[in-house]
Structure formats: C-alpha cells, structure tokens
Write a structure and sequence with these properties.
The protein is mainly alpha-helical. The protein folds into two domains: 1-70, Histone, subunit A; 81-111. The protein contains four helices and no strands. It has helices spanning 2-32, 38-65, 73-79, 84-111. Helix 2 crosses helix 3 and helix 3 packs antiparallel against helix 4. The chain is extended and about 55 Å long. 1% of the residues are buried. This is Apoptosis-inducing TAF9-like domain 1 family protein. One of its GO terms (molecular function) is protein heterodimerization activity. InterPro entries: CENP-S/Mhf1 (IPR029003), Histone-fold (IPR009072). Keywords: DNA damage, DNA repair, DNA-binding. Belongs to the TAF9 family. CENP-S/MHF1 subfamily.
Length: 112
Amino acid sequence: MADASGEDVQERLKSALWFAISKMVDDESLRRNMNATPQFIGALTELVWTQIENVAIDLETFSQHAGRTTVTTDDVLLLARRNSDLQSVIKDCVDRLKAAKVKEKTRSGKQK
C-alpha cells in the first residue's frame, strides 16, 4: 500500500514538473516566435526529473556522510563545488539569509 501511495505522489510530482516545464517552454517559444513539440517537452521533463533525482541522492549522501539526517546548506554548497559561479550565487544568498536572521534576532531581543 505504501508503494502505491509513493508511486502516486511521484506521478503527481512528475505531472506538476511537466506542467511547469511546458509553461516555461511555451512562454519562451512565444517570445522567440518558435514552436516546441510535445515530444521535446516530454524529453526535457525526463531530463530534469533525472537530474532532480541525482541531486537528491547526492544531497542525502553528503548529509549521511556528515552524520546528519537533515540536508543543510553546507550539503548544497558541496554539491555546487564544481560550478564556481553557481556556488558563489548560493553562498551569497545563504550569507544574506544568515545576516537577516541575525538582524531579526537582535531586533526582537531589543523589543523585549
């Protein structure tokens, strides 16, 4: 029963991914005055799905190797290590979020 439910969730996620990719491709096709076939959208969806699965496996593996059960930003940065531009963008975003969190803590501490 759990497998059927898991497969159902996976199919629903894949359908949502197909819908999102289809919308992006349609928008870009209109912008460029080009057409994309349903086969192209299906193939692109499969490619993206496979990449998502690989990323998920890698993130889980990094987390487990570090002795954690939760994926952290450190795992994401490790995953992006081979793409320095992507790693830089992610690191900047993480740093901004951490700074905002610290600022919020200090602000809420002063209000008490």
